[in-house]
Specification:
Layout (H helix, E strand, L loop, with lengths): L9 E4 L10 H5 L6 E4 L6 H8 L1 H9 L6 E7 L6 E2 L11 E6 H10 L8 E8 H4 L3 H4 L10 E7 L2 E6 L4 E8 L2 E6 L37 H6 L2 E5 L4 E4 L4 E6 L4 E8 L10 H10 L5 H16 L22 H15 L2
Helix pairs in contact: 2-3, 3-4
């Protein structure tokens, strides 16, 4: 692993939150910097089982299994855990397979002492559908945020730096996770790959963090000056704000985390990425002067924080310039769909 001296995210303990997880949702709401909460979920039965042994962890998980079939990734040992593209970027260096969840656990246990084992990884699996009842026995006090809980389990793995639009709280149950974080301002220095052709849905950094080629990716050196790096142990949690880039490594024979995603806007607002894709199709092709003009319009209508800038328009005529409710969003989405036909 290539390393340089990096800062660490802000770290607190559960005592800071006043009585374990109490007040967690309020503590996280509105944060725009990562936060490590040491031993936040240390009392989870899941974490206690993992601390006993890998076998104990798998036995505990299987108490909730109802024959779930999961999507798994297989990666040759030669890839050293890095899930990425193939050499000519025409495909990927891993294969996807479906298997019973209990079969995946059995395979991980069978290879737990094999240092040259291939990588087996089950990721982004909704906990309630895979292991119903698990979250009820391993609770976290963020119900008011209406989060989606997902499970990620595997042996050695390296997940390329990527961002997620929702806010994210990752809770390590087993193994160790090394996380490298970058603020959104470092996007240009991370050498991001294709938008439409990605390993797992989100665009990723093309830089190999274990051995970065600084001749090919020279600006990565600047990105690392802004990086935050943390190693998470069982029971630890890390809050990753929306749009922060994060590279995650699992370093033990079985690494398990539960993460929670949530958005601070209603679901009917839709995916912000759609606006980016549309802008690439319609604005990126314009001459420079026209792009700058549209940049000024976006600054005025979208990014300016002056809440009074539309006060000269009668409220009844502000449309999408005003506070949005579900009916207004649906109305203007239909208007947009109609315009896209021309």
């Amino acid at each position: 692993m290539w390393q340089r001296r990096c800062a660490k995210p802000e770290t607190v303990t559960t005592s800071t939150l006043e009585c374990s997880q109490s007040g967690l949702a309020e503590y996280l709401t509105g944060r725009d910097e990562p936060l490590v909460i040491e031993q936040l979920v240390a009392e989870w039965p899941l974490v206690q089982a993992a601390k006993a042994s890998n076998e104990s962890l798998c036995d505990y998980l299987l108490e909730f299994d109802r024959g779930a079939v999961v999507d798994a990734i297989r990666l040759p040992a030669s890839a050293d855990g890095r899930m990425f593209y193939n050499d000519d970027i025409t495909g990927f260096n891993f294969s996807r397979v479906k298997m019973l969840f209990k079969t995946a656990l059995g395979a991980l246990l069978a290879e737990q002492h094999n240092s040259t084992a291939e990588t087996l990884y089950v990721g982004s699996t909704t906990v309630d559908s895979c292991l119903p009842g698990l979250l009820g026995k391993n609770k976290i006090a963020i119900e008011s945020l209406d989060p989606l809980g997902t499970l990620w389990i595997g042996n050695k793995s390296r997940i390329a730096a990527h961002y997620d639009a929702p806010d994210n709280l990752i809770c390590v149950a087993s193994g160790k996770r090394r996380v490298t974080l970058f603020p959104p301002s470092q996007t240009k220095n991370l050498y991001v790959g294709p938008l439409h052709f990605t390993p797992a849905g989100q665009p990723i950094s093309m830089v190999d963090f274990s051995a970065p080629d600084l001749n090919k990716y020279p600006r990565f050196e600047e990105a690392m000056k802004h990086a935050l790096v943390v190693e998470l142990l069982p029971g630890d949690a890390l809050y990753i704000p929306s749009m922060w880039w994060h590279h995650i490594e699992g370093t033990e024979s079985i690494n398990l985390l539960i993460n929670y995603w949530w958005r601070d806007v209603p679901a009917y607002i839709g995916r912000s990425e759609n606006a980016l894709y549309h802008a690439l199709l319609t604005l990126k092709q314009l001459p420079k002067a026209q792009r700058r003009a549209w940049q000024a319009l976006f600054d005025h209508y979208v990014f300016d924080d002056d809440g009074t800038r539309f006060n000269h328009i009668p409220p009844s005529k502000q449309g999408p310039l005003s506070e949005l409710d579900e009916n207004t969003v649906r109305q203007f989405k239909a208007w947009l769909v109609n315009n896209l036909k021309h």
